[in-house]
Amino acid sequence: MGYGSEIAGAIAAIGFIFYQHGFPEGFIYFSFVSAGYLAISLLMAGQGKYGELLEEIRQLEVTEIEIVRNSQRIFAELGISILVFTGATFFLIYGPEFSLLKYFIVYGMLIAITEMIKRFVTYFTTRLYYSKQQGNLYILSRLASRKFSIQDIQETTIESTVDLLKLHPYLTLFSSNTDFTTSFNKVLRLLLPGETIYLTIQETEQWKAALETETKSESTIENEVFVLPFYHKRNIKRLLGKFYFAITVKGVSAYTGVLLLLYYFRTPAWLMVTMAIMYWLFNIYISDRVLKVAMDAKAVTDPKVISAADKIFAKAGIPNVKVYETDSAQYNGLATGMNIGRSMVTLTTATLNLPIDAIEGILAHEAVHVKKRDILYGQLYRVLLMLIVAGGLLLIFKQVSDIEAFAIPIFLLVWLLIILFPVFQSFCSQLMEVRADHLGASFLDGGTLQMADSLAALATSQDEAMQKTATYSMKKEDLKEGRSSLARSPWLLRFLEFQIMDHPPMYWRVNTLRVHGNQWGKEIRRRWWKDRFKESFTK
Fold this sequence. Notes:
transmembrane; 539 residues; PH_YxkI; alpha+beta; metalloprotease
């Protein structure tokens, strides 16, 4: 009944929008209404868990852990968000009256406002309880509640204050942090499978000691970690780097600021486009440095990993590339940099906990991305397609004088272009990923079998962490039995994985390496091309 009423309401809303506004305005309004509905749905998704935990706590003997609140904390976060969108806001106010870019800005701001609402609600409603009898910690927040066994805590750490440059969502990459901090007091950091939780509570040292006693584990850091305030002079370089990342990668303020300046001086359209492309190329050129700051990446110190990286990178012909580590509970690796001389490979702390044979496979995979300049070419393909789509839409609106007379065909054509964008992007990206698997296997002593085992180990650990994270934050009735990434997916999910996602399904990648263990070449390309469609359209 609930889903039926939602579908009926959606159909009625679409009809009303197009009846009131016609085309193409109706299409634009429809896009914003859809985005708003999705944003609100995601925002409210945590309410069910809140109600479930509230009812459970009422039936238990629990100790409330007092949370420290200070309004400076939430206003500091709000201030950073406003700064990130300053350029985009000025473009909305002072930019050209009719500009497609304004619609993208409004869409981005809609998502940002939703996130800030969630953060404000978290700040005002978060409460923390401990049940010694059940051995559970309960974090109650209207929109983002958690329940987890203290036996799941892998590490407890105290930080001297909130590291805003690490916790603000616009200033980070590969972040698995869940921020419940409500002041700039001392922070209790809890490392869990797939997630790291940050809290500001009273009696931080006592609760840290109590949790370590109950879990019979010790923190690897005896003393508290000293954190500099984000405005400290020794943090200026990090602050500027992360802010630049936020306005160029997480937002569009940098680009809109440049375009607004050119528009103010009445610069010709062709010169504005040229300057925007040049600025984009400059950002690709410095992307390794920007992302290094954004991830707070530090050089790996484990001698086994360093030795493995040196051996693999030498075989790949990129001996000067270094491997870095970023603090994250996600299982992932990333190659960055426009060219070989400016590239780096970064692994998360969770990934570095895998067996060394698995780490070697991940390093070999990323080495191919560096060797083949996949980061640069991936960006070029993406921008080329964006220009084609934008050019196609402009051509339609220029050539068709009576838009209303061809409303339905144009509507279908616009949707086709929008759908084809991620399909083409997925095609290019997946081809690079398959090449990285098979060509990277040639850098390993164990060949394709070691690469297959590496990906399988990564996928299994990822699945386990994601399942744990789901149990912490989702209602019991919404939880489903975890599906292994190494198992063939149901048809619809397979279709999306092959046609939309950046990576082919893990089950296909591992199976292809094990069964068809050829090195990169025509045979593997043909198999990927054939299976991309066969697996997408067959049960």
